[in-house]
Design goal:
Layout lengths: L1 E5 L11 H17 L6 E4 L9 H11 L6 E3 L7 H8 L14 E3 L5 E4 L14 H12 L6 E4 L19 H12 L4 E6 L6 E5 L2 E5 L14 H5 L2 E7 L5 E8 L5 E3 L2
Parallel strand pairs: 1-2, 2-3, 5-6, 6-7, 7-9
Antiparallel strand pairs: 1-10, 4-5, 8-9, 10-11, 11-12
Length: about 260
């Protein structure tokens, strides 16, 4: 199965950076649509909109509608769940515990499980008892197929970040680690929020962050080619559940470029 991950587009209807971020996303979408074969799914790991306004989501929805592969989204700290659901409801699966945007995507060889880590109190991540219970049910309903969990906040210390630990409490991350150890079919955890590429492990499997699509907000890179161009991650999962990740950088002429 092939999954494209985009994250932290921070689309805005107006204001500083609005035009450039829309162009960054448009270029990424154009590249994704040129992939052959097309990915089985595209996941957006949050902060779709910069201010969470209806106009921001209208602009984001117009751009994301150009994707030729199915899109699935999860809320970031800057997203407004209600407005996101109105504008991009087709990208969200059936919710069993509203208002949290948690669901499983079926119909693929690998299940995609969205985990809502948005906090009402801070920009950091959290997972309440209800969300933990729902995650356990979603994962427990199908243990024979490999699964990928996608969420906004990374559950590990991100090297070089101004705020390395990006959850509200370490107890929450410890609890998530324990839950994932009980669901061995999970092969990877994919995150955003850090605006940079980083990798660690949780529950005995890979967990990584993708660089922000919004170039002006990207962090942790010095290579000029990376800093000037939007990018995304391509995850290939083989029959044994092994995950191979490639970073795709979109050059000025919209050709694809591998960056390791």
């Amino acid at each position: 199965m092939r999954i494209v991950q985009i994250t932290d587009t921070h689309i805005a209807a107006d204001g500083p950076g609005a035009s450039a971020r829309a162009d960054d996303l448009a270029r990424v979408i154009d590249d994704i649509n040129r992939l052959r074969p097309l990915p089985d799914a595209v996941i957006h790991t949050g902060d779709i909109a910069h201010r969470g306004r209806s106009g921001d989501y209208a602009r984001a929805a117009k751009l994301l509608a150009q994707l030729e592969a199915p899109l699935h989204t999860v809320a970031g700290n800057r997203d407004d769940r209600g407005r996101l659901a109105v504008a991009l409801g087709g990208t969200i699966g059936a919710l069993t515990a509203p208002p949290y945007l948690q669901y499983a995507v079926e119909g693929h060889r690998v299940r995609l499980v969205a985990l809502d880590t948005k906090s009402a109190d801070s920009n950091r991540g959290t997972i309440c008892d209800d969300r933990f219970a729902l995650l356990d049910r979603l994962l427990g309903s199908e243990k024979k197929r490999p699964a990928v969990v996608f969420m906004h906040h990374p559950p590990f210390d991100v090297p070089g970040s101004k705020y390395p630990f990006q959850f509200e409490t370490r107890a929450t991350v410890k609890r998530l680690d324990g839950m994932l150890r009980g669901h061995r079919q999970v092969v990877a955890v994919l995150c955003g929020h850090a605006h940079r590429a980083s990798e660690d492990s949780i529950g005995g499997r890979r967990v990584l962050t993708a660089p922000s699509v919004a170039v002006d907000l990207r962090r942790g890179e010095s290579a000029s080619a990376h800093r000037r161009a939007p990018c995304y991650l391509l995850h290939d999962i083989d029959a044994a559940g092994a995950v191979s990740t490639t970073r795709r950088t979109v050059t000025a002429d919209h050709t694809l470029r591998r960056a390791g």
